Task: structure prediction
Amino acid sequence: MRVGVVALQGDVSEHVSALRGVGAEPVEVRRRDDIEGVDGAVIPGGESTTISSLLFDRGLDAELVEMAESGTPIWGTCAGMILLASEGRGDVERTGQHMLGLLDASVERNAFGRQRESFQAPVEFDGFDEPFEAVFIRAPAYTEVGGGVEVLSEFGGGVVAARDGPILATAFHPELVDDERVHEYFASMVDG
Ligand code: GLN
Result:
């Protein structure tokens, strides 16, 4: 199972090792050619405006949209979750950053306020027996989701994990904790 990790900026290496941990073969994606033939893709956390402009400059947006249309799973964490959304509020609207629009949701950047830039909290995740210790770093949240979207986790009044068919989004960073369950969840989407 080959999983492309968009490697333009952000916490790429952490996803690469976490994916190896669940038996996937990670492939770092910098150019269009790199993404060919992958079975799934991850858009990591980082700075969504930076990742967005590099992604669109290099034409990787078209590759990802095509993948999603053919049912290939894509997972965005944090900044990646922002880029997946179909609509942006507040900061997202102001900066006019390009979005992929692959998940029917409205997203707010830095949804947990500047005082709480970075924190850790246990969250319930649909299908997990025990809560997941979630690391939030200037995290976004989905404030509204479309009818076809499965809400997997909510925290502080917002949606912090959601799935829309082959598209998975998490506002927190499963690649930064010693708990493979969300990577396993994504690997099973890729495998299935
Ligand atoms: N707040 C950042 C953004 O808007 C995302 C932070 C992250 O990915 N850790 O791009």
Q: What stands out?
A: The chain has one domain: 2-191.
